[in-house]
Amino acid sequence: QVTLVESGGGLVQAGGSLRLSCAVSGRTLSNYDMGWFRQAPGKEREFVAAIRRSASNTYYVDAVKGRFTISRDNAKNMVNLQMNSLKPEDTAVYYCAARILFAADLAQTKYDYWGQGTQVTVSS
Questions:
Q1: If you write DSSP's letter for every residue of 60-89 in order, what string do you get?
Q2: How many CB atoms are located within 10 Å of the residue 40 CB?
Q3: Got the DSSP string for 16-60?
Q4: For residues 99 and 109, what is the distance between their CA atoms, to the nearest angstrom?
């Protein structure tokens, strides 16, 4: 069993920054491709970013390209999402997720494990 715990959310003004972290326990992080998703009130959950298990490739939704950076430290079993130049439309609950098997499209595939989420609120 794999457990994912997100942290780092909070309230920030537009233009500010937050760094989300996802602590993974139960299995070695290097066995998983990892993703970040978000869900705003009244909206469906959407893909934000993903990173391959070797950190060889990263992927982002267009809305966050150039502002968000996903990274991982397999030795520490941590995945991070650095969010800069935040906008009110980034307000959402952010979830990290883990996938065991390879998938060509990490934005569209089903993930095996999910965290409980952390709230990010960006004020205008």
A1: E-GGGTTTEEEEEETTTTEEEEEE-S--GG
A2: 14
A3: --EEEEEEEESS-GGG-EEEEEEE-TTS--EEEEEE-TTS--EEE
A4: 9
Residues linked to residue 25 through DSSP beta bridges, in sequence order? 3
In sequence order, what are the residues at sequence separation of 6 or more whose Cβ sits closer than 8 angstroms to the Cβ of residue 6? 20, 21, 22, 94, 95, 96, 115, 116, 117, 118
Confidence of residue 115 (pLDDT cuts 50, 70, 90): very high
Identity (one letter) of the amino acid at 100? I
User: What are the backbone angles phi and psi of residue 19, rounded to the nearest 5°?
Assistant: -125, 115
Summarised one tens digit per residue, pLDDT across range 13-58 is: 999 999 999 999 998 999 999 999 999 999 999 999 999 999 889 9
pLDDT of 97 above 90? yes
